Here is the input.
Amino acid sequence: MPLTEDSGSKVLYPVRESEALPVTKRQSSRERAGAYIDSPLMTHRVHYRGQLAARIQGNYGIYYTQVCQVARGIESECSCPSDVRPCKHVRALRATWKENPESFSSFRTF
Ligand SMILES: [Zn+2]
Here is the structure.
């Protein structure tokens, strides 16, 4: 169904950049990773020197997920069998770090 173009309407509130992303894009990425973001399924959350790690209770078992910030971007690892890289666990881990960094144990030295 085509959307009706209403040229008379004005945007009443300024839209923040994160909210201005196309809705479909946000939803599809949220949909798959969303169940794990800051959820009780994600345990053993650890932050250490730019690395994030967590244990995730997935559909077929427990996966160990790691994200590492490197000079050229992000490297990630996950023990799940998904062919999609980065998988939803990696995305969920990064999203959880953004949404609730306090939930991660932080190790500065071993
Ligand atoms: Zn995974």
